[in-house]
Design goal:
The two termini are 55 Å apart. This protein is an alpha+beta fold and 915 residues long. Among the domains are: 298 residues, Beta-galactosidase, Chain A, domain 5; 97 residues, Maltose phosphorylase, domain 3 (Sandwich), CATH 2.60.420.10. The protein has an eleven-stranded antiparallel β-sheet, with helices on one face. Strands 7, 8, 13, 19, 21 and 22 form a six-stranded antiparallel β-sheet that branches. It has a six-stranded mixed β-sheet with strand order 24-42-43-48-44-45. It is globular.
Length: 915
Amino acid sequence: MVKKTVKPWQFISDEGAFTLERPEASSYLYFPLANEAGVMSAITPTLNGDIKSSQNAFLLTPVSAEDLHNNKSSRNFWLYIEGTGAWSVSGSAPSQVACSFQEDLSEKVKLEAGFLWHKLIRENKNIGIKAEVINFAPVENYKTELMMVSITNTGDKVLKITPTAAVPIYGRSADNLRDHRHVTSLLHRINTVENGVVVKPTLSFDERGHKANNVLYSVIGTEDNGDRPVGFFPEVEEFIGEGGSLEWPEAVVCNVEPYAAQGQHFEGYEAIGALRFKAVDLLPGETKAYIMMLSINEEGNEKEISELVDIYGSLDKFNSALERNKAFWKEKIERPAFHTVDKTFDGWMKWINLQPILRRIYGCSFLPHHDYGRGGRGWRDLWQDCLALLIMEPKEVRNLLFNNYGGVRIDGSNATIIGSKPGEFIADRNNIARVWMDHGAWPFLTTKLYLDLSGDLDFLLERQEYFKDRLISRCTEGDTEWSIEQGNKLKMVSGDIYKGTILEHILIQNLTPFFNVGMHNNIRLEGADWNDALDMAAEKGESVAFTAFYGSNLLEIAKLVRALKAKKGIESVAVAEEMMLLFDTLDAGANYDSIEYKKNLLKKYFETCKHNISGKTVEISVVKLAEDLEKKGNWIINHVRHQEWIKNSEGYQWFNGYYDNDGNRVEGDHEYGTRMNLTSQVFTTMGGVATDEQVECIIKSADKYLKDSKVGGYRLNTNYHEVKKNLGRLFGFAFGHKENGAMFSHMAIMYGNALYKRGFAKAGYEVINSIYAQCVDFEKSRIYPGVPEYINEKGRGMYHYLTGSASWMLLTVLTETFGVKGDLGDLVIEPKLLASQFDDQGTAGVEALFADRKIKVIYNNSKKLDYGQYRIQAVIINGSEVGCELTGGKAVIKRAVLEALEADKTHEISIQLSM
């Protein structure tokens, strides 16, 4: 195979804009373009990709990753150049495609991109022509992607050009790609209007049935001075001609006169927004530009077409919209901002800031690798994405958290179909009785972060509804009394909707799993845990990893309960009468070593709340409640710490994390080789199950069996060398891909976070830095700035942008590496920076939000001391030293000190570090 020279992308501004030469020489690259109105696009260096607003409204043909090089149905803009012939700004003509495999090119291509705009620059020196193509989704409330093509004569002769925009209009549901593709084209009603082509299908054929369609799809355009097109080719077959294609269309190649004018109507054919602009003599050095608006209007508002022309239909208007776009996204992601010796890292982290916002817009769907979803987010996503929002947009999060708790069932499980509105949960339309055993653990983790940043303990006492559908007893049974007409709210015997405190919701989510154990007294794996592909061990499978997570949660909840008394003077809290069964240490007889005892108690609880509950509540002492939770949490820690600590034949030690569906321990020595999982080490380390000595052993074992520089760090698991059908479908994947042994960013970053938390900063830095180094090594990763879901066996980044690992990367770097975090509302400064992360002057800093104040924390380490050597000697705010609690490497600044600062300024907090 020919080895091509690959230059890396480089940042060209402090605002995160970057450039990449020859982007078309790397396969599978794509870039997101989106706005908060709901347009979701993907664009490639050849202008491929798609544009959509939902699963059922695609303007461009839906694409998966392989379509990026197979699909011809993409954005394009053609020039017929007199004396030369057809030339494409996307490079799709056959002669241009061949150029990408050559080193010495007559046609040069460069990409520039930023938040969230995409520019492609293509220049052909032989012809003497250059094209710049800029695409972005405007910040205004339009489901529109804007596209500007500017053409410059770089030669010394006049070029006579005839321009034609060519954007195929798919105009229907993604389901129709293989289901009634031709039949649904018969629904198309195509109209040519003053500035372009509009398609409004009569009906929609999709999973919702056959319904009257109201969605308009349009491709409209103007010249830079506002002049409209001179004609149109609205049907694909007429545009390409017999024997032609979208990569060599007869209408352009033969410079055919357009056959359609404004005001014409066509029916029943595949549509294309092919807009012919008037021919122009382009003088040497002269530039001519064209603006296209690629739009979806789900309300069928035909007036929007003229609105778009009025707002964006000239070069000046397009450029103004672009500047508004840049300003909007700059403000959106400006904090946190990191300042280290490595400026590339600082810029890379800005793209990490963007990724959780993209997840909120796209969900886990609608980008080329994310072709398995139909929009929306899952339960786990709701809570993980809030981690980043708490850091970036904290004012919005309280309501989000409150609404999300409305998805909890009284049996401790939760809704898995999330509606489009905040707090909207829908009964399972597919009758799939499934529960992910880890789902109950995440809400508390996110809520704890919120409470630490805000000090808002009153949130725990807010009352929220419970979700109710036909599934009961953690989805193992059906409620024969329930019907969809009753709605999705848990009711009391009286028929009224029951509401419990947020604390009560948290308790139910963490207590019912405690009793739901398997034959080794660990919590059952059920449908799966965090690793969704561990989905074939529902009967006898156990997740030790998440047993540890729940154990640490129980201890942390106990601390919060005690804080209610210490900080708020609250002596007792109300819980549903039925829940008193779960606080079994209040009476004698609790026996947590007995598996049967736990299972019987849980069964008894489920019996009390099958269809509804009494509505009666009981006041329970916060002290007794905390003691009950501590007994349960400590039992888990002792159990896992001793029963699941293993040693293999080579003398390495770590935690076993799973039991398979035959009840066998998964990790350790095996006839096919050593088996180790990273997840098993993360939660035992993060939650304090592992002792310091055990953490040291885990590090050695992970370095031995999981670390691999080829994939950018730590693999998710070792190679099991079998399709392990008694544990999960992941073992059917090739090793080194996705959940089977890839460097799976989410868990790897959490491993780094856990190591930092436990004070193993050098090991934590190694994890985070190895991921960063792999991602920015473009020759290996072949991705734009940011973190992907995973790194495959060849070192390529996969499933870019839409990954919860971005939230964890942001959280880890801010709260652990830079040590800016909260403790029930107070600001804690506890840096774990290594000497190598400070600049030549010994400084490093971060800009963040805390207590509704903009703060800039600057660490001064003039002697370049390493972590473990330095201590905090003084805290200076805006030039004045402030009194605060100093303990070694940690300082606690009371919230009142920060709230006394002006709200509309950035406040500098200088931290003096020394021996």
